[in-house]
Specification:
With about 700 residues, this protein is of the alpha+beta class. It is built from 13 helices and 35 strands. The structure holds MU-OXO-diiron (FEO) and calcium ion (2 copies).
């Protein structure tokens, strides 16, 4: 989600909502102190990398941990142990064109645009408006995080794609924009909006002729929406804090929404992450801490679903005001059933989504698996994407056993940690555990009381405030290097400016940066780490790889801002996706939102592609052979007015171009823009990027 969208709907301040009023140290002040110290230490790029993180030495002798659903490179291209990938393509220039711009030697296909029929009666997309019932059988809108699950036979040509659908933009989504009547929303508009949220599971297969991917109309295909029944598992299951009229026992809820980035598990399930869920609710009767610390509104819900004309129970629940005599007579606790990591088994179409509450409740951007190690706990990392929020890690209690089948229940017991970054380059993971003495005593000393671990988890942000976590500049996606296990995470920006000024945008961090850390002993479950800045975004003269360590400055080939999506392929390329606002894309120094490829060993970064007007590049996954790269263009035409479109992608027919080809200009009365997946392949069928 970009700043503009948030600006229009939630906060009007051009940034993600900020609801952290704790006195914890802010990361920018720590970084400032640290960088000035680093400038003294700097002795050249290679030396700096080795000296600060010990990278070349520690890489030696480490094998790649494999698990069934991690893409692997083909044997012929498998790099040396150091995974020092050559970025074997010409950087594309800074571009504005209403299409994908990709390097020479590559081609692209638009797949499963919003409205593609995948199940039921397979209703075709109607640009003049489908019904809510039809939307329930179609691909949702605003594609975001996703993962490709290969079938055992033909894994590189046939798999299940799980795709998040983050939100809807009424100006593009409804034929004439959203219609409000007597302060209420037409039921079917609400039904359609609810249905366009959530997740699509869709079977896809590559055809032999021309190598185009197609939807298979099979039994795996399903839509999970903002209204699909889901189970609550883990420590919060049955808590008083999640009892509702719908589920008096506090064991179930309906729907998952604002699903942003994603994760996956070693046992082949999909993890979807609930990000800006708080804005969908309203509470007119006073905010308890489990609402206020997350920014639940006291005036109106984001889409006002609670005002649907028919007053159906599934929509009324978005009003979390106290109305009844107890929690099981109203929906005061409904917001507490959202903000979780949700597990979905794509291979069992009858399975229910499960909210894994042990992993914490916040504005989950993603859920990032560290390569599992046999006999050790399984570790996931997650960012909380709001201004001044924190970075978390979840470590399972049970150990990973590659020879024994496990399922998601292993996620119901473990320790949730939050990160503290010290200004000397070290860091600590602080447990948010009511049985931890430091946590308990600190909370009591600060006058904050938790009834039980369920209370801690429902109030994860408050618990993190208690232990003194470090406020970060909007943590977005993370990525774990497949060999070194170093973790990289985007901090997209953190500006308190009220308007975007592209030529003068850093106030204090309008371009964002990427931080990285290495766990003590290279063990993902360790409680201490060392950290470093990999790159500062920015235009020429401001952006730099390894700032303070004589790393290369960014150039016309790789300037960027607002890094968001992040992913390592198995060749060790770090893929960086950007999410600048529409206005910044339209007039700033960076051109359209783009995807860049980085070599974390050398610091080389090249712009690989950019997208059509007003979109953000987000979501990334690959077939196991690395020859089909899937990414999403979310919200092309984001600045459209009803039937006045700023993009016509992809139905304009101009799906992609190469540098030097004619620019594609949007026609305001042309095709309605649609979010879609983009499949990138090489014309010589080689591996992407190398
Ligand atoms: Fe949905 Fe933080 O991006
Ligand atoms: Ca973002
Ligand atoms: Ca994002």
């Amino acid at each position: 989600m970009d700043d503009t969208q948030i600006c229009k709907i939630e906060t009007d301040n051009g940034d993600e909502p900020m609801s952290n009023h704790s006195e914890n140290a802010h990361f920018s002040s720590i970084l400032e102190r640290r960088l000035s110290r680093r400038e003294v230490l700097a002795g050249g790029f290679g030396l700096a990398v080795a000296g600060v993180l010990g990278l070349p030495e520690l890489v030696k002798g480490m094998g790649i941990e494999k698990h069934p659903f991690t893409p692997e490179p083909a044997i012929s291209s498998r790099p040396s142990a150091a995974l020092n990938p050559k970025l074997n393509f010409s950087a594309i220039p800074i571009t504005r064109s209403d299409t994908a711009t990709i390097p020479h030697g590559y081609k692209a296909q638009a797949l499963i645009p919003w409205g593609t029929p995948i199940t039921g009666d397979y209703p075709e997309f109607n640009p003049d408006g489908n019904t809510g019932e039809e939307q329930e059988q179609q691909i949702g809108s605003n594609h975001d995080g996703m993962h490709y699950f290969p079938f055992r036979d033909n894994p590189n040509d046939h798999g299940l794609l799980c795709v998040n659908h983050e939100y809807i933009d009424g100006n593009v989504f409804h034929p004439g924009g959203a219609t409000l009547a007597n302060d209420q929303w037409p039921d079917d508009e609400v039904r359609k909006e609810v249905a366009a949220h959530g997740i699509s599971v869709v079977e896809i297969k590559k055809g032999s002729a021309g190598g185009q991917w197609n939807v298979v109309r099979g039994a795996y295909n399903r839509r999970i929406t903002a209204d699909t029944p889901a189970e609550i598992r883990g420590p919060v299951r049955g808590s008083d804090l999640v009892r509702t009229k719908y589920s008096p026992t506090g064991t179930a809820t309906r729907g998952t929404f604002n699903n942003c980035a994603n994760g996956y598990t070693p046992w082949g399930t999909y993890l979807t992450c609930e990000e800006n869920w708080a804005g969908y609710f309203v509470n007119h009767t006073g905010l308890p801490r489990e609402h206020s610390r997350y920014g639940v509104s006291q005036s109106t819900g984001r889409y006002r679903w609670e005002t649907a004309q028919g007053r159906a129970d599934e929509y009324i629940r978005f009003d979390a005001s106290v109305k009844g005599n107890s929690a099981i007579e109203d929906y005061r606790n409904e917001p507490n059933t959202h903000g979780w990591i949700v597990e979905i088994d794509p291979f069992d179409p009858n399975s229910r989504p499960v909210k894994r509450t042990a992993m914490g409740r916040f504005a989950h951007e993603g859920c990032l698996l560290a390569p599992p190690k046999n006999g050790k706990p399984i570790v996931f990392y997650a960012g909380d994407d709001s201004q001044n929020e924190y970075i978390y890690k979840f470590v399972t209690k049970a150990r990973y056993n590659k020879n024994k089948h496990v399922n998601g229940d292993i996620l119901d017991e473990g320790t949730l940690y939050v990160a503290r970054f010290n200004d000397d380059g070290t860091g600590e993971w602080l447990p948010l555990d009511i049985n931890d003495r430091f946590f308990r005593v600190t909370a009591i000393n600060k006058g904050i009381f938790f009834v039980d671990q369920a209370d801690v988890l429902v109030n994860t942000r408050l618990a993190a405030d208690v232990v003194g976590a470090t406020k970060m500049d909007r943590p977005e996606w993370g990525a774990v290097h497949p060999q070194t296990r170093e973790v990289y995470m985007t901090l997209t920006n953190n500006s308190n400016r009220t308007t975007t000024d592209a030529p003068n945008p850093r106030s204090p961090n309008p371009y964002g940066h990427i931080i990285r850390w290495r766990e003590q002993g290279n063990q993902s479950w360790a409680t201490k780490f060392e950290w470093d800045i990999f790159v500062l975004g920015g235009p020429e003269g401001e952006g730099q790889v390894l700032p303070g360590q004589n790393g290369p400055a960014l150039t016309q080939d790789n300037t960027f801002a607002s890094p968001d999506g992040l992913w390592f392929d198995q060749n060790g390329i770090l893929w960086i996706q950007t999410d600048m606002s529409g206005s910044q894309q339209g007039s700033g120094p960076f051109g359209a939102n783009s995807m860049l490829a980085a070599n974390p060993i050398t610091g080389e970064i090249k712009r690989f592609m950019s997208g059509p007007n007003d979109q953000e590049v987000t979501g990334i996954t690959s077939t196991p052979d690395g020859k089909n790269l899937f990414i999403n263009f979310q919200h092309p035409g984001d600045r459209s007015q009803p039937n006045q479109f700023t993009s016509n992608w992809p139905d304009s027919g101009a799906v992609f171009r190469h540098p030097g080809d004619a620019e594609v200009v949007a026609n305001p009365t042309g095709a309605r823009p649609r979010s879609a997946t983009v499949v990138i392949t090489r014309e010589d069928s080689g591996i992407i990027g190398v």
